[in-house]
Structures are given as structure tokens and as C-alpha cells.
Specification:
Elements: E1 13-17, H1 22-33, E2 37-44, H2 62-75, E3 79-83, H3 85-101, H4 108-127, E4 132-134, E5 139-143, E6 149-153, H5 170-173, E7 176-177, H6 187-196, H7 218-226, E8 231-234, E9 240-244, E10 271-276, E11 281-285, E12 292-302, E13 310-316, E14 323-331, E15 334-343, E16 351-356, E17 359-371
Parallel strand pairs: 1-2, 1-4, 2-3, 4-7, 8-11
Antiparallel strand pairs: 5-6, 8-9, 10-11, 12-15, 12-17, 13-14, 13-16, 14-15, 16-17
Helix pairs in contact: 1-2, 1-6, 3-4
Length: 376
């Protein structure tokens, strides 16, 4: 059952987060069409809101706010711009930099949903008397037979975004609307719907990558904030193979850009196995050494009722990754996870999201991993 009630049931006061893209515009239009009292809001998150989209990949420019305003005018709803740039910098950008500096690999989109869209924005919306926040995410909120609200995957798995919403708790789910989540359709059809509605964003390119790194150069962005710090690239035995200009510029599982002059004895590619900020060392080795059989994760957040202490689930480890079967056990606030089959490219700082069928059980931040071979 979708959570966009028809007007005769209950007319909600809805705050629609409008990024300036096609998905959020269509979501706002659908909420208004369902009979809700909708107000559009664009979040000004950029430290330089005067910047334009030329060469940019995000959704935080002044052009985006104007696109959102034009869409709101077409839909016929009030529209405002809220400045959350300071909160975004503290909770998302600064956290992103600090995590990389500590040798971890964060997901800023997940943190933005947790701290900005469904914390700062939702809290302000409720204080102003709104009932719900509406976004263009592809996910579903379903009410079960007992009246509990659950977060589920989108009907169209190809566009499912439930992974980055796995941080939402039951209070936040109680005030969340995702009008696109129960639609089995292609992006071209969403664009066609936008065009039928007269929305100029119908043909606007999607935002992608990290919104606050306009040119997509994550390593350059980090270097500008953390500075260069030369260190060693070593193999699993500790032998020096090369140097780097900052361990923060590498991620677990990385293959390209390692700057190693000495080939492996077997001639096969090397991959990043470990990043140590303590001694500023990057360890590399064969792809087989990336196989992870278990992990621990901290700060679990449950999408609704907390699960039993132990259970069998499927898990997703990255926004566009597949599912893998796991056994999870909660011990003193730490989530211990064992994989049925080894997985690769798992890095501390990433989120693991647990699923029971299509239902999102919750998420936690990966702290440590256990490898099938000697751990790096």
C-alpha cells in the first residue's frame, strides 16, 4: 500500500524538497495532484550559491534553485529557498573530509539524508506545522497490517534508492513521502511525464557523483583541505613499492592510479588492501586478498522496530551494489555480520544496509573487516 493518501482520506500539509531536478519536480507534482497542500522548498547547500552548473555535477547551484522555482510555479505551489549551507558543511562536508583523513570511505549522500533532509529539514517542517516531507527518492513507505510504517525498496529495482535512506528511523518514516517509489517505469517515462506537466526540467541531465565536488575530482578536493602528505605504498610484506601524496586519496579495492613502478611477481594487477592514517601508508596486494568474510559495524539505525538480536538477512554494501546473504548479530550495540560468500571492496566507513525481502531493516557504519586471507 503506497503512502500517498487520496485527498478524501486525509489532506496533508507537505513540504516538497525540490533540488531543481526532474525527479523531485515530478514527486512534488504528484503529491499536489493527490490532493495534498504542498509547499516547495529548495535547500541552499552550496558555500558559493552564485556558482552555475557549467561543468558541475551536483544540485546546489543558483541555477538549480531557479529551476526548482520555475517547476513550483508550473505546479502552482508556494516556493521558498532555505539556507542550510552551514549545517550541510558541518554535518556532511566536514564529516566527509574527516572520514577520509581517518582512512575510512564515507557515503555523503546517506549522511545528507540522515542529517539534512530528514533531520534539519524535517524538524523545521514539523515546527512550522507540516505533516510530511516529500522527496524524489525511489523507495516506498508501506504500512503493515498492524499499522507500522516500513521502508521498502522501490517497485523498480533498477532505480531503487533505499540504500541511501537506510538511516531513517521510525519517527522520520512517519513523516516521509516518496511519490515515485511505487512506480514501475523508466527514467524516460518520468521525463515524459514531466514534459506533459509542462515542467522545463524534463530534459535536464541528472546530477551525479558528489554534489559538493563539482568537477568530480575527489582527490583534488581532499588535497585542497588536507594538504599533501607524502607516504609509502607497500606490499603485504611491508616492502616499499612507491610513494603517494596523501593516503586519504585512496580507497579499499582501488586499482588505478596507484603509481607503482615495480610490477607484481605474478604480473597481475595490485589493489588497495589497507589505508593506515597512523603511519600514512597504503598497502596493496592481489585481488584475492580483498575477499571479506565478516565485518563489524557501529551506530546501527533501525527503520522501524529494532530486529531480534540475531537473524539472517540480505545486505547491500554500496549505493549501486547487489545483495548478498548474511547472518547478523547485535552485541552491545555492535553489529557483527558474517557473509555466506566472500565479498570484495568492503571498506571501513561505508554503510551496510540490511534487508528482509524488500523491507529495509536498518543500517550501520562498517568499522572493521575480516578477510579470507591474511588481513591487511
Amino acid at each position: 500500500m503506497t503512502e500517498i493518501p487520496a485527498a478524501p482520506q486525509r489532506r496533508l500539509r507537505v513540504l516538497a524538497a525540490m533540488s531543481g531536478g526532474v525527479d523531485s519536480a515530478v514527486a512534488a507534482a504528484r503529491a499536489a495532484e493527490a490532493g495534498h497542500d504542498v509547499t516547495g522548498v529548495h535547500l541552499a547547500l552550496s558555500a558559493n550559491p552564485q556558482s552555475f552548473r557549467t561543468g558541475a555535477r551536483g544540485c546546489c547551484t543558483i541555477e538549480d534553485s531557479r529551476d526548482a522555482r520555475r517547476a513550483a510555479d508550473v505546479i502552482g505551489i508556494p516556493f521558498y529557498v532555505w539556507d542550510l549551507a552551514d549545517r550541510f558543511r558541518e554535518d556532511v562536508v566536514d564529516d566527509f573530509v574527516a572520514e577520509y583523513e581517518a582512512g575510512r570511505t564515507p557515503n555523503p549522500c546517506l549522511r545528507c539524508n540522515e542529517k539534512i533532509k530528514f533531520a534539519a529539514l524535517l524538524d523545521k517542517a514539523l515546527a512550522l506545522g507540516f505533516d510530511a516531507v516529500c522527496t524524489g527518492h525511489y523507495a516506498q513507505v508501506i504500512t503493515d497490517a498492524d499499522g507500522n510504517r516500513e521502508l521498502h525498496r522501490a517497485s523498480d529495482m533498477a532505480k531503487d534508492q533505499s540504500y541511501v535512506l537506510g538511516v531513517l528511523d521510525d519517527r522520520q518514516l512517519a513523516h516521509a513521502l516518496f511519490p515515485l517509489g511505487d512506480t514501475v517505469t523508466t527514467k524516460d517515462e518520468i521525463r515524459a511525464e514531466a514534459e506533459r506537466r509542462g515542467l522545463a526540467v524534463a530534459k535536464k541531465p541528472d546530477s551525479h557523483d558528489i554534489c559538493f565536488i563539482a568537477d568530480g575530482d575527489t582527490q583534488g578536493f581532499l588535497a585542497s583541505r588536507l594538504g599533501k602528505a607524502e607516504g609509502d605504498i607497500v606490499d603485504e610484506a611491508g616492502a616499499k613499492l612507491g610513494t603517494h601524496e596523501g593516503a586519504y586519496g585512496y580507497t579499499i579495492g582501488q586499482r588505478k592510479g596507484l603509481r607503482i613502478g615495480t610490477p607484481a611477481p605474478d604480473g597481475k594487477p595490485r589493489y588497495v588492501l589497507d589505508i593506515s592514517p597512523v603511519n600514512n601508508t597504503v598497502t596493496v596486494g592481489p585481488v584475492e586478498a580483498l575477499d571479506v568474510t565478516a565485518l563489524t559495524a557501529l551506530k546501527p539505525r533501525w527503520c522501524g522496530t529494532a530486529p531480534a538480536a540475531a537473524g539472517t538477512y540480505t545486505a547491500q554494501l554500496r549505493a549501486h551494489g547487489g545483495e548478498t546473504r548474511v547472518h547478523a548479530e547485535l552485541v552491545d550495540g555492535t553489529l557483527n555480520v558474517t557473509f555466506d560468500e566472500p565479498v570484495r571492496g568492503v571498506a571501513p566507513g561505508q554503510a551496510i544496509v540490511l534487508y528482509d525481502g524488500t523491507r529495509v531493516v536498518g543500517s550501520a557504519t562498517i568499522a572493521t573487516t575480516e578477510r579470507a586471507t591474511a588481513a591487511a
